[in-house]
Write a structure and sequence with these properties.
Fumarate Reductase Cytochrome B subunit, two-stranded antiparallel ribbon
Length: 187
C-alpha cells in the first residue's frame, strides 16, 4: 500500500546529503561556540575548541557554497499543492535568509580572526591564509558575527524547525518528505 506522500517530488540525493550534513554541523558548532566563549582563555581545551569552531565554520561555508552551486542547476521540488501562497513565500524567504546567514557567519568569523591577527588552523592540518592586521575590520566582523549573526542563526534555525514541526504535526502535508529519501512500505 502506498503512503499518501509516496509521489512527493523530492530534492536530489546530493541536495539531501548536503542539507543534512549542514544541519549536523550546525548542531555541532553551536554548542562548541557556547562552551568556548564561556571558558577561561587559560583552559586546556580552549585552543582545541576554537580550532574546531573555525574549522567547522569553514567547512559549512564550503558546503553551503556547494549547495548553492548544486541548487542553481537543480531547482527545489515544488511544494505540495495544499501549501498556501503565504506559506510558500515565507518558506522561500526563510530558506534564502538561511543561505545568507550560513555564508555570512563563516565569512564574518574568518574576517574577525584573520584581520585580528589570529591564525586559522583548519583541523590542525594547515593554516588558512590570513590578512593584514586591521582592527577596524576585525571589530566590525566581530559585531556582525557575535552581536548580530549568532542571534539570526538561532532565530532562523528555530523558525526552520518550527515550520518543519508545523508541517509534520499540524498540516501533515508531506513537506518534510521532500528532504528525505523515499521510504519503502512495509508489507
Amino acid at each position: 500500500m502506498k503512503t499518501p506522500f509516496a509521489e512527493t517530488k523530492r530534492y536530489t540525493s546530493a541536495a539531501q546529503a548536503l542539507h543534512w550534513i549542514t544541519a549536523a554541523l550546525m548542531f555541532i558548532i553551536l554548542p562548541i561556540a557556547w562552551v568556548m566563549v564561556n571558558m577561561p582563555d587559560s583552559a586546556k581545551s580552549a585552543d582545541l575548541l576554537f580550532t574546531l569552531h573555525k574549522s567547522i565554520g569553514l567547512t559549512i561555508l564550503a558546503i553551503v557554497a556547494l549547495r548553492l552551486i548544486w541548487r542553481a542547476s537543480h531547482p527545489a521540488p515544488p511544494l505540495p499543492g495544499s501549501v498556501a501562497r503565504w506559506d510558500r513565500i515565507a518558506a522561500t524567504a526563510s530558506h534564502w535568509m538561511l543561505y545568507v546567514i550560513l555564508l555570512g557567519m563563516p565569512i564574518s568569523g574568518y574576517l574577525m580572526e584573520a584581520s585580528g591577527g589570529y591564525p586559522i588552523r583548519y583541523f590542525g592540518l594547515f593554516t588558512v591564509p590570513g590578512l593584514p592586521k586591521l582592527p577596524g575590520l576585525s571589530n566590525t566582523a566581530f559585531w556582525m558575527h557575535v552581536a548580530v549573526g549568532q542571534w539570526l542563526v538561532y532565530a532562523l534555525i528555530l523558525l526552520h524547525l518550527a515550520a518543519t514541526a508545523w508541517h509534520i504535526a499540524v498540516k501533515r502535508d508531506g513537506v518534510l518528505n521532500r528532504m528525505l529519501p523515499p521510504q519503502e512500505d512495509a508489507d
